[in-house]
Design brief:
This protein is α+β, with helices and mostly antiparallel strands and 154 residues long. It has a single domain, classed as 2-Layer Sandwich (Alpha-Beta Plaits). Helix content is 41%, strand content 18%. The chain has eight helices and four strands, in the order βααβααβααβαα. Strands 2-3-1-4 form a four-stranded antiparallel β-sheet, with helices on both faces. The protein starts with a strand and ends with a helix. 31% of the residues are buried.
Length: 154
């Protein structure tokens, strides 16, 4: 089993629509572990670093304006194959392509307001985690059930 960490962010529209608890709950119910979480309002400098790959695209400025428009919830999930599991749970960027049952398939009608961001690879995950979290903010713990299932003398 390949245990991975991945970066996820509930965007301002997801926070403002009151979907944060539902979104986080989906990942926890899937079996992924939250190892870091914070609510922040992203400043322009951080937004530009986060979306640097889109710098030359026509929608870059509106993307920056949107992501800095209100608080986001940034978090790190950990688990087996976490990156691909999170991406599948999130659904396609275009809501028309997002399957029912995915977060975007259930809650999104417009690409601009797609409520969530999730890292798409190990490299982007590592880069995004480093942008949003200090090493000491990331927790390392075992789920209690793991301790009882694998270390029990009974």
């Amino acid at each position: 089993m390949n245990i991975e960490k991945t970066f996820v962010m509930i965007k301002p529209d997801g926070v403002q629509r009151g979907l944060s608890g539902e979104i986080i709950s989906r990942f926890e119910k899937k079996g992924l572990k939250i190892v870091a979480v914070k609510m922040i309002t992203i400043n322009n400098a951080l937004a530009e670093k986060h979306y640097a790959e889109h710098k030359d695209k026509v929608f870059f400025e509106s993307l920056i304006d949107f992501i800095t428009s209100g608080p986001v919830i940034a978090f790190i999930l950990e688990g087996p194959e976490a990156i691909s599991i999170v991406r599948e749970t999130v659904g396609a960027t275009n809501p028309a392509d997002a399957l029912p049952g995915s977060i975007r398939g259930d809650y999104v009608i417009h690409t601009t307001f797609n409520i969530i961001h999730a890292s798409d690879s190990i490299n982007s995950s590592e880069r995004e985690i480093a942008l949003f979290f200090k090493k000491e903010e990331i927790q390392n713990y075992d789920l209690i059930i793991k301790r009882y299932l694998f270390n029990s003398n009974e």
